[in-house]
Amino acid sequence: MKWSGRRSSENFEDRRGMSSGGKTIVGGGIIGIIILLLNVFGGENAQMLTPILEQMNQGQSAPTEQRALTATEIEEGKFIEAILVDTEDVWGKIFQENNMQYKRPNLVLFTDGIETGCGNATSASGPFYCPSDQKVYMDLAFFEELKTRFGAQGGDFATAYVIAHEIGHHVQTLLGTSAKMRQMQEGKSEAEANKLSVALELQADFYAGVWTHYNQKMNNFLEEGDIDEALSAAHAVGDDAIQAKIQGHIVPESFTHGTSAQRKAWFMKGYKSGDINQGDTFAEIR
């Protein structure tokens, strides 16, 4: 994708190379895999790692020291910031068109572990949005794992899709959708609550597609293969794909993010329509 030449963002924080001062996962292992299963593309379902897993994973503390970023890391940061800027421009325009004001979230890059408004997080939690401080947190090591462990195609637009998905959760927070969903979950069975969670995640995929639609119109930034990269990433993080890969069987009632087919379909619906009014993913479970 074409991304150079974007303005700088006041909402980009690069904390890579900085001391986290906390526990980190050493070598990943089975605990890292479990946390990843629970939190990949966590959105608002990964606000805090479960206490039991935290305790199991606190056997070692890996001290970190400040270091200078490499040339590759600096270039990666510039790319991430460019995508963030694009989300600011697109959602600012969409909100303005609907007589609303868009509040820009922060995006934080980190390595190994970090303290957030939603609790401590590690690389194994995957990219996630914290509504408490309205920030997106990402360790870029996730994208290599997405390719090597889950078979995603990779590429720069796969990364852009992930960022756009997490920003979609911020949009849901601003619109009140997330709070309404949590209210709807109260008193529901686990299976019914999971269905609402799936609807929230699929809507974030839809918003990622809407962002892609608008950004293409505004910046003409797509290149051949970009949409395929996004769809490959969406496929890799479907609940069915992850469960089949990790545990060898699928348990539909435990889905919290949607199947690979659903995630791809809602992204494409947003991309093709560019209409935020067509993103009522909750209608499918009514």
H and E order:
EHHHEEEEEHHHHHHH
Structural category:
alpha/beta
Large-scale geometry: globular
- Gyration radius, to the nearest Å? 18 Å
Helix content: 40-55%
Q: What is the end-to-end distance?
A: 38 Å
**Unreliable residue stretches:** 21-38, 45-63
Write down the overall mean pLDDT. 83
Q: Count the E strands.
A: 6
Q: Which range does the strand content fall in?
A: 5-15%
Strand order of the largest sheet: 1-2-6-5
The total number of structural domains is: 1
Individual helix count: 10
The main sheet comes to: 4 strands, mixed
Protein name: Metalloprotease
InterPro entries: Uncharacterised_pept_Zn_put
Pfam family, one: Zn_peptidase
Organism: Flavobacterium xinjiangense
